Predict the structure.
Amino acid sequence: TTGYEEAGAQGIIAGANAGRAAGAASRDESPPVPFVLGRDEAYIGVLIDDLVTKGTSEPYRMFTSRAEYRISLRADNADLRLTRKGAEHGLVTDPERLAALDMRETMIGQNIDRLRNFKLFVTDWAKRGGNDLMGGAAANRPGRESHKKSAEEVLGMPNVSLKMVEQIMADVIQEEGSGQVDNDESTEEMIMTPSSVYDTVEASVKYKSYVIRQEKDIESWRKAQGARIPPGIIYDHSIMPTFSKEELEKLNQFKPSTFAEASQISGITPQSLVYLYHHVSKMNKESRRKKRESLAASGSSQ
């Protein structure tokens, strides 16, 4: 990238805060609370936080790998993340735009709720959508005939699209209306998800489990800030294949003794820090296991 976007991103925040401060001063009001975007709210928040807390010795470029919340920072939900916050700080004032946001939020919620409430037997999903796509390895096991799955759960499966799921829902509802199927769900007419919220509904369901895991990883990482990193740890691509060459070079150069120190090294991504945390935890467990075995062996020999 050229860097124009990174510079422009900083300019947006600087301009927003300068404008709000100037407006408050012209009205003889006290300075407003600064408009700040967090790392979990926007890539701009990641960029500014990195530059402020870590600094940089070379031109900074915004990569998705720098963001620990990148699964949540998507183009399809930018308005949901930022428009409301902009309105709270007086940066978004158009009532039609805010009304459109309210409508979009409502539509997204309603469509996800509909997917969550629509249920079929796993065997029916497999029969209608294909055993490979919607059945899964356990679909035809004995005893699974009475097990149901929601449309939300089926959409979360690999290679299953919202269009596929909704087509099955529409077919079932049509058959219910003609009395061909006995289902305990509503038989009202099926309306497909509008294109204006399609991507967000699909992504929200698809990434739900990953977002939960992402939150758990970040929470584990936060609790481990003060944990120590073994001095003899080897930073090598064969051991840490997900690390970039730059990350391995910097870790070998600075040899951080704690995770807090590692997090302050410019260029080390949050995801790599989480990976390092899991790697060290695994090393510590293995060390404790060997120590127990050694003590048990020495005890039995006596």
Summary: Strands lie at 119-121, 148-150. Residues 213 and 219 are 10 Å apart (CA to CA). The longest strand covers residues 119-121. The first helix runs from residue 4 to 26.
